[in-house]
Design goal:
By secondary structure, the chain is of the alpha/beta class. The protein is built from 23 helices and 19 strands. The strands form four sheets. A six-stranded parallel beta sheet has the order 3-2-4-5-7-6, with helices on both faces. A six-stranded parallel beta sheet has the order 15-14-16-17-19-18, sandwiched between helices. A five-stranded parallel beta sheet has the order 10-9-11-12-13, with helices on both faces. Strand 2, helix 2 and strand 3 form a beta-alpha-beta unit. Helix 1 crosses helix 2 and helix 1 packs parallel to helix 7. It binds thiamine diphosphate and magnesium ion. The site of magnesium ion has 7 residues, from helix 16.
Length: 606
């Protein structure tokens, strides 16, 4: 024992440092006084990054981890600041991202008095948190911070600590009951290791794959970092790949048998192929639409690999369930399966992918006219570094990014994929640039989502975190308007007034550029990158048309199913004259299509 004293707030920060915390995102408040005082202490090494809205702070903390940085920490004022954190924390929970949220609260003597701003805060997060406590004494503070972070990382989720305002100031013994001496368990932390895969299961999976006539690999986040092995397995057993929205960067964008993702935020080839397949190897995925949309309704055999026992069988009944690391299991299957040399199934799907790519390319490479989102992506692809980072919002931009960005495993692409909260891209860009000072960061944002987040452009300016914001301005909530087109008689509440986002950028000390013609997009994007390279924060306000990206979830390109008139109208609307249904490619290879016409028409799932 020593008689060394330190403030509980500083002790808590020292514990965080032991876990690699380098940044705390938030807005100060009276209820955070003790903690803020400790952050100002010369002995503290953790930076406080002030945002303009706590939601931005929470999202930045979460996106930092999604982009591969250290665990993020966010703070919110007791009451209104704590409630503002909610979208970021709910996004983290749905995406299994560790994060620590510190909620300020009344000093301990004022608790439970129904006083100003007092709110029973922990229950707000009861639904999602893996750790959710109110600190009871100053001595507990460093110890519970340690506990909270360890639990968040081990359980991959949200840790919430409510801290009475006075605790941070209190002088505690550095050797206390709870920390003898004060310590962070971060240094000795060991994460779960996947169980080694079982040979018998690998053999069973290999046999099913080799017997399959129409196999597909459905590759989720578990395959991230193992793209090359999955591509090799795909080629060996002639099983084209479907990936999930979150997982595009795992594969080379031009891999010949990458059919994209299924459902609305997806590609035509994947949506068609999954209904024609007989066998699915479902790897490291939790694709949430699969049961409700009947994604696997035409499949005979389903093999699943997951390192989490709770996931095996969750989305579809399994014929073989493999518990273990996706990369290890894929390598083991690869070693066991026999190579398939000829496959009409593979050939038909590869041709279908090429047909889709030709269509995408045509849209991207138009040279004149009113600007469409497609040509903006063409310019981004041209000027993006090969290891560019994309922080992407929710809306058409999610769907468009997956179709048009030329991603490889060198890139990173992150969004709010499951909670799907608008407003995530700009905070994500703050965190990405903070984590990777030398990498080029693009924020891809719809105008609706930018309107939720643009006050924080100045945060990038203030902290010298240059990024390129590309705002897709169609003066509407396009993703929702497009949905209502299929489901609603009245399309209300979806349009809005145009705003000069370049001026808003300039007002915050960033560079604002505007473009509305295809002829100008190359020049403007080059200018944007030039400014960015000079260390400036840039906002490109891309005034685009209201064209709806082709709805592949209600695909109408097959005259056998929908009749000539419907197909012609559909193709005309989406400039898609060249699109050919997979059925035709299958038949050209001597295969029969088992595609079943949708009986329930459009879906109403979101
Ligand atoms: C916080 C939040 N509010 C509402 C929604 C519902 N929603 C999903 S996409 C979208 C429209 C996005 O509009 P915008 O950012 O302009 O992009 P666009 O689709 O027009 O390209 C809306 C309102 C949401 N996902 N998140
Ligand atoms: Mg919009």
């Amino acid at each position: 024992m020593t008689d060394k004293k330190m403030s509980a707030g500083l002790a808590a920060l020292k514990v965080m440092e032991g876990w690699g915390v380098d940044t705390i995102y938030g807005i100060p408040s009276g209820t955070l006084s003790g903690l803020m005082n400790a952050i100002g202490d010369p002995e503290n090494n953790i930076e406080f990054l002030q945002v303009k809205h706590e939601e931005v702070g929470a999202m930045a903390a979460v996106m930092q981890k999604k982009f591969g940085g250290n665990i993020g920490v966010t703070v919110g004022s007791g009451g209104p600041g704590a409630t503002h954190l909610i979208n970021g924390l709910y996004d983290a929970a749905m995406d299994n991202i560790p994060v620590l949220a510190i909620l300020g609260s009344k000093p301990v003597r004022e608790l439970n008095m129904d006083s100003f701003q007092e709110l029973n805060q922990n229950p707000m997060y009861e639904n999602i948190a893996v750790y959710n406590r109110r600190v009871a004494t100053p001595e507990q503070l460093p110890h519970l911070v340690d506990d909270a972070i360890r639990t968040a990382i081990a359980k991959r989720g949200v840790a919430v600590l409510e801290v009475p305002a006075d605790f941070g100031f209190a002088e505690v013994d550095a050797d206390s009951l709870y920390s003898t001496p004060l310590y962070s368990s971060g240094l000795g932390f060991q994460n779960y290791k996947s169980a080694p895969v079982e040979d018998a299961e690998i053999e069973a999976a290999a046999e099913i794959l080799n017997q399959a006539k129409r196999p597909v690999i459905y590759a989720g986040m578990g395959t991230m970092g193992h793209g090359a092995a999955v591509q090799e397995l795909a080629r060996k057993v002639k099983a084209p790949i479907i990936t999930t929205g979150k997982n595009f960067e795992t594969f080379e964008w031009n891999f010949e048998a990458l059919t994209g993702s299924t459902f609305r935020v997806g590609w035509k080839p994947a949506n068609e192929m999954v209904l024609e397949a007989d066998t699915v190897l479902f790897v490291g995925s939790n694709f949430p639409f699969s049961e409700v949309e009947g994604t696997f309704r035409n499949v005979d055999k389903f093999v699943q690999i997951d390192n989490n026992p709770a996931m095996l069988g969750k989305r579809h009944a399994t014929d073989v369930a493999i518990l273990g690391d996706a990369g290890e299991a894929v390598e083991a299957i690869l070693a066991k399966v026999e190579a398939v040399s000829e496959s009409a199934w593979w050939d038909a799907n590869v041709k279908n992918v090429q047909n889709w790519r030709d269509y995408m390319n045509k849209l991207e490479q138009k040279t004149e006219g009113d600007l469409q989102a497609y040509q903006v992506y063409n310019a981004i692809n041209k000027y993006a570094d090969e290891d560019a980072i994309y922080s992407t919002d929710v809306g058409n931009v999610t769907q468009m990014s997956l179709r048009h960005l030329h991603m490889t495993p060198k890139n990173m692409w992150r969004t709010s994929p499951l909670f799907a909260s608008m407003g995530i891209a700009l905070p994500g860009g703050i965190a990405a640039k903070k984590t990777y000072a030398d990498r080029q960061v693009w924020n891809l944002i719809g105008d609706g989502a930018f309107s939720m987040s643009y006050p924080d452009v100045v945060t990038n300016v203030r902290y010298n975190l240059p990024v390129i914001n590309v705002v897709f301005t169609n003066t509407e909530y396009g993703f929702i308007k497009n949905k209502y087109e299929d489901t609603n008689k009245y399309n209300v509440g979806v349009d809005f007034t145009d705003v000069d986002y370049a001026k808003i950028a300039e007002a915050q000390g960033a560079v604002g550029l505007t473009v509305s013609r295809i002829e100008d997009i190359d020049r403007v994007m080059k200018e944007a990158v030039d400014y960015y390279n000079q260390g400036r924060v840039v906002v490109v306000d891309a005034k685009i048309t209201k064209d709806r990206p082709i709805p592949v979830e209600t695909l109408k390109v097959d005259a056998n199913l929908y009749g000539e008139d419907v197909v012609n109208a559909y193709k005309a609307k989406y400039e898609a004259e060249e699109l050919v249904p997979l059925r035709e490619f299958l038949e050209a290879e001597g295969l029969e299509s088992k595609y079943i016409k949708e009986e329930n028409g459009n879906k109403f799932s979101f």
